[in-house]
Amino acid sequence: MTTTTDRPGTGAAVGRASSTRVTQRRVLAAEGIKLRAQRSILWLLVISVLSIVAAALSSALTSTLADAPPEGAGGASDPLGAALTGVSFTQVLIVALGVLVVTSEYSTGLFRATFTAVPKRLPVLWAKAIVAAVAVFVATLAAALISFVTARAVMSSADGTTSLGDPGVLRALVGSALYLSVTTILAVAFGSLLRSAIGAMAALFGLLFVVPLLGQLLPETGPYLPNNAGAAIMRIGSPEGSLSPWVGLGVFGLYAVVALIAAAVALTRRDA
């Protein structure tokens, strides 16, 4: 009769391998830690929140001092319109944030350690997109709600002031945070594709702020261009020729999905 015995240390080695197995959950946790450790990212989040609130307060005060009548939900002299005034500028900051989430690792060389720890790479891309988008959603949703409450308090003397319970108001506020979250995913994808902060930001500024101008030349395709489609989620009602709120956000999200898939393909096919 023969007996078999494990080699010394084999059981411990297997235990260690099992305990250190790479999972999407662990990669998400690691990316969350890295995001919180990056001061530039945190500052961009803080400035984004402050810019939304400050723009809303400025718009509300200007409207009140000018004694302008309310223009209905989404108008410049309406609390909702005031609350969303800063979204366009904040989108610029969010583009920078999403790009830096990826390119900061390439500029410092940290990506080598990251891909050594996670050889399959794709979990890292998914985690970066999810962590950054969730952080932006939470921060900008809080900013939008604070902005609306602040603007409504400043403009409370106006008759017919929009309230949070009015049709479409809450959807528009939540939609602004979703809109900026999709922008974040798009920025992460471009950062991964181009691996250059300047190059990715330039490409995104062109896509988000220059390409929509073509809508004036091509009215039929204008509503389907990135920013035009995404902005529909923040409108009350659907003007003729524009997409409905959720369809518009879906089209904008499709741009982000396509960009993220392209980034995933590039990440798996080229050298680290």
Task: Explain how this protein is built.
The structure is a single chain. By secondary structure, the chain is mostly helical. The protein has one domain (23-269). 69% of the residues lie in helices and 0% in strands. The chain is globular.
Features:
272 residues, mainly alpha, 11 helices, 0% strand, disordered N terminus
List the helices and strands and how they pair.
Blueprint: H1 10-19, H2 24-37, H3 39-65, H4 79-83, H5 87-108, H6 110-117, H7 122-154, H8 169-194, H9 197-210, H10 226-230, H11 245-269
Estimate nothing, just give the exact number of structural domains: 1
End-to-end Cα distance, whole Å, is 53 Å
Write the element-wise H/E pattern from the N-terminal end onward.
Answer: HHHHHHHHHHH
How much of the sequence lies in strands comes to: under 5%
Give the overall silhouette: globular
Rg for CA atoms:
23 Å
- The poorly predicted ranges are 1-19, 69-76
Helix share, percent: 55-70%
Structural class: mainly alpha
Q: What value does the average pLDDT take?
A: 86
Work out the helix count.
Answer: 11
Number of E-type strands: 0
Describe the largest sheet.
Answer: none
Brief synopsis:
The protein is mainly alpha-helical and 272 residues long. The protein contains 11 helices and no strands.
